[in-house]
Amino acid sequence: MKRSFINLFIIIMILASLIASGDGVTPVHALGSMEVVPSLPPSLPGELIQGYLVGVWGASSTSVFAVGSGNSGYGTATLPLIYRKNDTIWTSVIPPLPPVTPAWNTGSLEAVWGSGDSNVFAVGSGGQDNQLNFPLLSRWNGSTWTSSSPGLPAGFNYGHLYDVWGSGASNVFAVGDGGHTNSTVTYPLLYRYNGSTWTSSSLPLPDGWGHGYLRAVWGSSASNVYAVGFGDMGSASIPLLYHYNGSTWSFSTPSLPTEDWGSGYLNGVWGSGTNDIYAVGSGNNGSSVATLLYHYDGSSWTSSSLPSLSGWSTIRLYSIWGSSANDVYIVGSGIHEGTTLPLLYRKTINGWAASNFLPTGWSSGHFDGIWGSSTTEVYAVGSGRVPNSSGGVDDVPLLARAGPDEVDPGAVNELLATPGPVIGSVNLRWKAPADDAGNNNSGPVDSYLVKYSTSSLADCTGGTPITSGLPLPAAPTTIQAMTISGLTMGEQYYFAVCALDEEDNPSEAATTSAKATARWMHDDLDAGWTYSSGFSILANPGAYLDGIHTVATIGKYAEFTFTGSQFDVLYTANTNRGKVNVFVNGIPIGTMDQYSPTKVLQARWPSRDLGPGDHTVKLVHAGPSGSVMNIDAIEVGDYIPPDGGTYDDLDARWTYSSGFSILANPGAYLDGIHSSTTPDSYAEFTFYGSQFEVLYTANFNRGIATVLVNDLPIGTMDQFSPTKVLQARWPSGDLGPGVHKVKLIHAGPSGSVINIDAIVVPAGPGTYDDLDASWIYSSGFGILANPGAYLDGIHSSTTVGNYAEFTFTGSQFDLLYTANFNRGTADVLVDGLSIGTMDQYSLDRVFQARWPSGDLGPGVHTVKVVHTGPSGSVINIDAIDVP
Q: Which structural domains are found in the chain, ordered by start?
């Protein structure tokens, strides 16, 4: 758990009525990430029986002020209310009303700020006859409170103050609103204190506005101050923001997030510096009340969003404070299951998360203000309703303090271990727990502790810790995954995973075990091979152990028997090579095409997952006559699912049920598809990654396919289109990292066609050569040897309009190419939108030149590089680098 209301600290709920007794506060029981101190009966100062807190500020962790108001019962006069923490003791007081004539009988405080422990200002409003019509200022000099009502601007006869902030003792700002009862206009109201005198003024409204209200003020310095609120333009309330540059005030009206928003109100402002400022509030998004959040980056204000809360409505934000750019708090309230609850959002390096609670015995509550002295001492104030002995309810102050985290994270769920994607590795996969056990709104945990051992583990106390490759904790219930490498292949390993909060409180341990991926290489000279007559042994430097078996006679074969679930055949591809039919246990599983326009050493043909057991592989020369088939080696062992790449329908790792046939289809990926008209026929493909896209040819005679992942349905693929569409795509969405089995089932109607063209698994971080399976090239590209290029080769084309595509997961990329005098330009598109032009021309040849994309934002992106001319010029692809 984080030490916050949501997940960084424990929240200690202090009913302010407890404070007047002068006793220290000790938490007595946990509730989610908070601890609540019951206080019965409430004891407010004087004769007050109702109380409300709105603002909080402190000079230090041992000198904190909270302000608001209270009354002696519904319908009685409202009086200002102040709580003060001195060292560890809280006391409460009703400060005096201003000594004015006619005498005031009412007052309410909204905010508090000070330049130090003995110079504190609290602001609000008050007046006669129970009317809060005039500005109210209460000041603490270190020993006593005095109150006054600073004068209104000329022409005003009413005013209210809602917030106060200063850059120092002689530069203090207070903001609110005011006007004249004979006028229809309400103006933003501004007071400024120079160390001895308060002066008042009103700020101009934008043209056409009838009202303006300020609710908060904050600055990074005396010459960089922001005041926020809202105003009326016609019938709509619009966010309103003023900026002071040290000499003048200017206004702006931040746009509402979308056209669906009808109004917006800003209630709080705070920043970590001049280039990192937030303004918060709420507004009407359609028929609902929703959160409003703006961020200033030093150049412009943009609307942002907070995590949505399932089952919540009417969420309002009132105040914001932070200790740094990555430790920011927003407080307010929301309605959940018919009850108004205090609500807090917190931003860390992991993003925003939310927390809520209601103290035991309370019927409702809300937060209005927040402040802290550090990340370990944060206060939120508000009020709530508590049933009283008369059968009614009382409004009572709510004061929350964040302290050390004492609530354990939730347990790691659904831990699964499987053989990993490389030899000597294991994949771990689990569901992320909540930072507070039982409260998924408490956000992600702080870190994970992963242990491994060759003997059984019961918890996280034994074993060897994994120190690298740990996943960044994600939101509760998100799939988390990691690969542990460097293990002894074939060895059984035991794993324990615990979640930790920032206090290093551990969750319960989840345990599992698996064997590390094992693969064994057997050269073509290995005694396990059986060759028919006609094979020759050839020296072949660069092949596995520098030699191969070859044969040029159709029907000749080689056999190898192994124990495992997959094999890769290694061979040397070349211009004189032919095709090889592949059988396993007497059943054909695919055809290996050993042809290549250039010589490729140690090329691989991987089988699909055969399942564990004994398997006999038979490789049969399938022609054409005179062509060469060769065997370099065979790698056998555990199945390693493919990761990033584009895998054609003919890839050996596809499994098809009966009913599918192979069709030529020019324009499809590699110009062919598998198709079926039989309901319930299916195709399967297993991969390692977090998502995929199925490529198919849409047309008028197409049907529907049900898509399952790991035997669970995730959607339906409708392949119908009124016109033919080649390489149409169906995206899976994020499945979470791990091994996934995709199953596509013909779902009808009877007689309609479903087809498989290819499957695309987005590549992760890495450098991918032009020959990588993740690249898709249009016709017209050739493969050229190019010493000095990445892996000494490139794909190139001289035809305008030819293209290459690559799909990856990440936020940016660099395209590598060879620049030269005969090169042209290429348009670079990402997800269908042009992001720039790559000019590959250079007076001299430059190997591995780079074209950077810039930041695209995290996610799955498809890059398309299109030859744009001039005609006859060359564009080339060397590699793509994904950070």
A: 10-403 (2.130.10.10), 413-515 (2.60.40.10), 521-633 (2.60.120.260), 645-761 (2.60.120.260), 766-882 (2.60.120.260)
